[in-house]
Design goal:
Pyrimidine Nucleoside Phosphorylase, Chain A, domain 2, 2 domains, 16 helices, 7 strands, globular, Glycosyl_Trfase_fam3_N_dom, aromatic amino acid biosynthesis, amino-acid biosynthesis, anthranilate phosphoribosyltransferase activity
């Protein structure tokens, strides 16, 4: 048992009237003890439940990030025309709508915008299809790469998926607790803002609940994040909704945060959301999009990709981003980018 960790648990778990928030330093210490298994399973489970009930603060989230940055993997800076866009989707996936993250990432990379996506295997509580499986269905085996190999592929192709079980095993050991407590712990919020890339980057965080915005803002300012995009996306992902107003929080400089709304109908993008398909059917739909075929999946992909091309600074307007995304698809350049990626991965595995 860790007596130090017990004090942190006691502080946040004393009930609605006497519990207190941790300082940034205490939150970092608590998460180091969890990741390094110096806290016992009982302590870790109790901490997760207590912290979820209390709700983490922005300062605590900053401390949690400190621990992840200290103990987690770090991809090194690469040469690129734009900062790496780290797209942080919920690790437990989707249960109602089809994810388009691989297609969006391929379009961005084709336009010269590097993309890194962290994730793992099927994870509680949703147990949705993980992005690593969707990439595998496209012929890309991210799970086989060592961290050095991942670095090499990122530099060559401007694409990378950091696979938690292989690249951050300390964090992977905590995954089992999620199923046992039956709820997402605050660590799931941490994952939406954690970047495994140590160079200049643009963090993109999906979220669901409005209070998360303020936590992101405080933690981002404490960590000196300049380029940041938080999207109230589909099921908390980075995919833009089409059947409702897009709500976002944007920052282009440290401390410069602004609320942003976007109406899909003004861009000809309004439509019903794509229902969740099984992996095989979704991979087939991806291939049709890559072939430049018109479809509802193509429209949804172009909508999100156009927005992120604009946020990356690759185009002057969202409309121009949508036009560029469609042009790259129809010209076969995105499909060629996937072939380049598959060759790069196959050559070193």
């Amino acid at each position: 048992m860790s007596t130090e960790f017990r004090e942190y648990l006691r502080k946040i778990g004393s009930g609605p009237h006497t519990s207190k928030s941790l300082t940034r330093e205490e939150a970092a210490a608590a998460y180091r003890l969890m990741l390094q298994a110096e806290a016992t399973p009982v302590q870790i489970g109790g901490f997760m439940i207590a912290h979820r009930i209390k709700r983490p603060t922005g300062e605590e989230l900053a401390g949690m990030l400190d621990a992840y940055n200290e103990l987690g993997p770090q991809l090194q800076p690469i040469d690129a025309a734009y900062p790496v866009m780290v797209m942080c989707n919920p690790y437990d996936g989707r249960s109602r709508t089809s994810p388009l993250s691989p297609l969006i990432a391929l379009i961005l990379a084709t336009a010269g915008v590097p993309v890194v996506t962290p994730g793992g295997d099927r994870m509680p509580t949703k147990m949705g299809v993980p992005l690593v499986d969707l990439w595998q269905a496209l012929g890309v085996s991210w799970a086989k790469l060592s961290l050095d190999q991942l670095q090499q592929v990122l530099a060559q192709t401007l694409l990378g998926l950091l696979y938690l079980p292989r690249h951050f095993p300390l964090a992977q050991t905590i995954v089992a607790y999620r199923e046992q407590i039956g709820k997402r712990p605050p660590q799931a919020t941490l994952e939406l803002i954690w970047s495994p890339y140590c160079g200049p980057c643009h963090t993109v965080s999906g979220f669901v609940h409005p209070p998360t915005e303020n936590m992101f803002r405080i933690a981002g300012e404490l960590h000196g994040l300049s380029q940041f995009t938080a999207i109230k996306g589909l099921e908390g992902s980075c995919d833009l909704p089409r059947d409702r107003t897009v709500i976002a929080m944007l920052s282009n400089a440290v401390g410069d945060w602004r609320r942003f709304t976007l109406h899909p109908q003004e861009f000809g993008a309004a439509a019903k959301e794509l229902p969740l398909l099984d992996t095989a059917d979704l991979a087939a739909a991806y291939q049709n999009v890559l072939a430049g075929e018109p479809s509802d999946v193509t429209n949804a992909t172009v909508w999100s990709a156009g927005f992120y091309l604009w946020r990356a600074g690759a185009v002057a307007t969202i409309e121009a981003g949508m036009a560029l995304a469609l042009e790259l698809l129809q010209a076969g350049k995105v499909k060629a980018q996937l072939a380049h990626l598959c060759c790069a991965v196959a050559a070193i595995t």
